[in-house]
Amino acid sequence: MTLYDLVEPGLVVGCAEPRYRISEIRDADPLGADALLAAIPGMNRTADVPALTVALRALVPDAEQVARWGVVEALAAMRDLGLLLGSLKRHGTEPVAAVPEVLPVLEELGRRTDMVPRDTVHHYTTWNPLGRRRRTYTATEMECHLQDAVRMVFPSLVAALDTCAEVARREPYDPGFSLALDRTAQHVQAMVDSIDFTVANVTPEFFARTLRPYFEEIDVAGRDYLGPAAAQVPLWLVDLTLWQSDRSDARYDAFLDESVPYSLPSWRAFHAAHRGGISAVSKLAAAVSWETAHRLPPQLTASALSLARVLRLLKTFRARHLGIARKAYSDDLRLYEAGSGGAPVALLRAVLDLTRDNETLVRQGVSVPRTTVA
Fold first, then answer.
1. pLDDT tens for residues 242-284?
2. Which residues lie closer than 8 Å to 263 by C-beta, 6 or more apart?
3. Pairing of strands 218-220, 223-225
4. Looking at the whole model, is its pTM more than 0.85?
5. N-terminal to C-terminal alpha carbon distance within the chain
6. Best CA proximity match to 124, nearest among 340, 269, 319, 277
7. Which pLDDT tens digit goes with each residue over 135-150?
8. How far apart are CA 77 and CA 82, in angstroms?
9. CA distances (Å), 162 to each of 133, 217, 283, 331, in order?
10. Three-point CA angle 121, 127, 131, nearest 5°
């Protein structure tokens, strides 16, 4: 089995949600950009800003062309323009200032796709072609590995929307509560596998010194938009219903307010529907506090163990992510104070602590009953 066998398991081809029609978006080349984009890594190696500027200007479509596109073509066009946006900014040039005619195109593509008016992590990874048509800044093996690490988790995040929504609908006494948590754990495991793949195949030095500069924010009509950062992969979809909706802190809430706009429309709708709700941890804590019997009901214990299992996986992912970030943003490597998603390393530490605190609370809630049963 190859890595590419793991990229899209379980995704429904032809799904009504156009942003899930991954193969179609990858295949699309509405700007006829394949040949030109293959030359971008060479331009980046020599920091050839004039050539990059000419390339961006050559790809800018006219209004009539854009008007004929559906969402699939618009996503592919933003993907391809985005490679040049990031390349120009990496070499110290604001792309919209250098090529003003791209501004109305970016704004229209943002409206047509219901996303921000620049490329995101989805454009750069999931919707990026495979093989010789792959769009990269550097054409290096490590850059490809980083893209593949993010591709691996997309199917699990899609599936997590359903399982986390089911957790939010159910109560801890319901057998469906623990079953939905167990399925969510399977999806979170993909995140852990992805971070392990990254650790094994992408060095902190490569990310910090070579790739990170391509993810800098750009100015679009007077507003800064972040580049396609891996931090935009929304693990908060899982956090939200498990603990974040009512057990968060101001730092994480502020980061989410900045990050959510970069996600898919249906994922933003999920966030809007569940923010401020009662989290799984709070539901369980309330149920356990009402129990006065010597032993918890078996289903309540099962729900607690399932919830603790998911939180442990989240904690594992965050601990490993923090380890990578500390190396990439150490004093001897870092070029920037904040991560590509806009968060400092200190925030990663804070979210890890919050995740650990919630796991501890859940485990303490069942520790006495489990000991008593023994």
1. 999 999 999 889 888 888 999 999 999 999 999 999 999 999 9
2. 120, 232, 234, 271
3. antiparallel
4. yes
5. 43
6. 340
7. 999 999 999 999 999 9
8. 8
9. 33, 32, 19, 41
10. 115
Q: Work out the pLDDT band at 2, boundaries 50, 70, 90.
A: very low
What pLDDT sits at residue 366?
67
SS (H, E, C) the chain: CCHHHHCCCCCCCCCCCHHHCHHHHHHCCCCCCHHHHHCHHHHHHCCCHHHHHHHHHHHCCCHHHHHCCCHHHHHHHHHHHHHHHHHHHHCCCCHHHHCCCHHHHHHHHHHHHCCCCCCCHHHHHHCCCCHHHCCCCCCCHHHHHHHHHHHCCHHHHHHHHHHHHHHHHCCCCCHHHHHHHHHHHHHHHHHHHHHHHHHHHCCHHHHHHHHHHHHCCEEECCEEECCCCHHHCCCHHHHHHHHHHHHCCHHHHHHHHHHHHHCCHHHHHHHHHHCCCCCHHHHHHHHHHHCCCCCCCHHHHHHHHHHHHHHHHHHHHHHHHHHHHHHHCCCCCCCCCCCCCCCCHHHHHHHHHHHHHHHHHHHHHHHHHHHHHC
The stretch 45-67 carries a mean pLDDT of 97
What phi and psi values does residue 98 have, to the nearest 5 degrees?
-75, -35
> Given CA atoms 265, 268, 273, 279 in this order, what sign does their dihedral have?
positive
What is the per-residue pLDDT across 304-313, written as a single tens digit (0 to 9) for each?
A: 999 999 999 9
Q: What's residue 176's pLDDT? A: 96
Tokens coding 361: 């609370």
pLDDT digits (tens, 9 = 90+) for 297-335: 889 999 999 999 999 999 999 999 888 878 766 666 555
> Please, which residues have CB within 8 angstroms of residue 262's CB and are 6 or more apart in sequence?
115, 116, 120, 121, 226, 232
* CA 166 remoteness from chain centre: 21
